[in-house]
TrEMBL record:
TM spans (from-to): none
GO molecular function: 4 iron, 4 sulfur cluster binding; deaminated base DNA N-glycosylase activity; metal ion binding
Native source organism of the sequence: Natrarchaeobaculum sulfurireducens
Superkingdom to which the source organism belongs: Archaea
Protein name from the UniProt record: Uracil DNA glycosylase superfamily protein
């Protein structure tokens, strides 16, 4: 399901033919919530679906298919037990990056989706999403250097009191082992009673 909570973008700076925003998509009762950066990085400006169109988005979708979360068409997959969203859901013209003020403006929209889904496992993709989740939704950010090393954090489990954060290195930087690493980690989590980690998506750690 696209935008199950009926959110509306606070601004429209999209190019002609692009969606004003790419809000959350998938199973609103999901245990796994995949969080990307913005549509210009991870895709969806034309489809309206996160993690489509771009090479990075397709790489993430391949992982979801390998563990059984996704099936069906690439541009409009059927998702089970998985929800997708972006820290910055609004679209910008090609080559334009969100400003710190843009991220701050859109924080309440991302926060509303994350709290409504209230997933067991949070899967941030790339440095921006990982930094944001660790900083705003856990007390774990101080454990890591100012510049997060996603090559070492990729597919690792960072436990809070209410959920697990499992960072994913941006697919544009993957080496040969990174795809298999995150698939294996997700299969391991699915093979155990991960639901005991459920909690309220707030400041936990």
């Amino acid at each position: 399901m696209t935008n199950p909570f009926g959110l509306r973008p606070p601004f429209d700076r999209s190019a002609a033919g692009d969606r004003a925003a790419v809000f959350g998509y998938g199973d609103a009762n999901a245990d796994f919530h995949v969080v990307g950066d913005h549509p210009g990085v991870h895709g969806g400006k034309r489809t309206g679906v996160p993690f489509t169109e771009t090479a990075a988005g397709r790489a993430i979708q391949t992982v979801l298919r390998d563990v059984g979360f996704a099936s069906g068409p690439a541009d409009e997959p059927t998702l089970e037990n998985c929800f997708l969203s972006y820290v910055h859901p609004c679209s910008l013209p090609n080559g334009h990056e969100p400003t710190p003020e843009d991220y701050e403006t859109l924080e309440r929209f991302f926060d509303a989706e994350l709290r409504a889904i209230n997933a067991h496992i949070l899967l941030p993709v790339g440095e921006r999403a990982t930094d944001h989740l660790l900083r705003e939704y856990t007390t774990q950010r101080h454990r890591f250097d100012a510049s997060l090393d996603l090559s070492s954090l990729h597919a690792e489990e960072i436990r809070g009191r209410g959920f697990l954060v499992v960072p994913i290195r941006d697919p544009s930087e993957w080496d040969a082992a990174d795809h298999e690493g995150i698939v294996s980690r997700l299969e391991s989590i699915l093979g155990r009673d991960y639901r005991q980690t459920k909690g309220v998506a707030t400041m936990v750690g």
